[in-house]
Amino acid sequence: MADKLETLDDLFELQLKDLYSAETQLVNALPLMAEKAKDGRLRAGFTKHLHETEKQVQRLARIGQDLGLDLGGHTCKAMAGLIAEGQETMSEQATAEVMDAALIAAAQRIEHYEISGYGTAAHFADRLGNASAAELLRQTLEEEQLTDTKLNDLAKNYINQKAE
Q1: Which helix (DSSP H) or strand (DSSP E) does residue 34 occupy?
Q2: CA triple 148-150-153, angle to 5 deg
Q3: Is 136 in contact with 63 (CB distance < 8 Å)?
Q4: What's CA 3's distance to the chain center, in Å?
Q5: Dist. CA 103–CA 107, nearest whole Å
Q6: Whole-number mean pLDDT of the chain?
Q7: Which H or E element spans position 74?
Q8: Whole-angstrom distance, CA of residue 38 vs CA of residue 23
Q9: pLDDT digits (tens, 9 = 90+) for 81-106
Q10: CA 99 – CA 75 distance, rounded (Å)
């Protein structure tokens, strides 16, 4: 990448590196979240999303390869912060039900960050005429939105009621 962000191509590359770093960090965090979850549905959801996230990393690597970009070597500080907050929450003394509610809250913050990132990157890919990258990015965007919806439904219809 250029030393400066001079073009939309430069910015698109930075967005891809940021997403790649974020997803790679999440691959390491999701097993810990699944382990900490007491509710079986929540635990299964985290495990399922881990497998999706691994595929999302592969999609990003494919985009990087297609564009001749090395997506490694960058650290997404926002994801590092979100994960650190989640780890701090997981170290708290809490009932199982309250911890599950806290895990959902942390996971939704992560999902919202990813939704924003993938939406932006897909738009950049469209503007740059890269239909293949845009399609892959939108596929991941849809998965992130669905995960957020599932977390929201689980929280509102079950976990938060138990935590009261």
Answers
A1: helix 8-36
A2: 110
A3: yes
A4: 27
A5: 6
A6: 95
A7: none
A8: 24
A9: 999 999 998 898 999 999 999 999 99
A10: 28
Fold that domain 8-163 belongs to in CATH: Ferritin (1.20.1260)
Rounded CA-CA distance 164/147 in Å is 24
Q: What residues does each domain of the chain span?
A: 8-163
pTM: 0.94
Q: Which residue has the tokens 């996971």?
A: 107
Residue indicated by tokens 């900490």: 36
Query: Which residues does 44 contact at the CB level (< 8 Å), separation at least 6?
Result: none
Q: Find the Cα–Cα–Cα–Cα dihedral 107, 108, 110, 115, rounded to 10°.
A: 140
- In whole angstroms, what is the distance from residue 19 CA to residue 11 CA? 12
The answer to whether 37 and 100 have CB atoms below 8 angstroms apart is yes
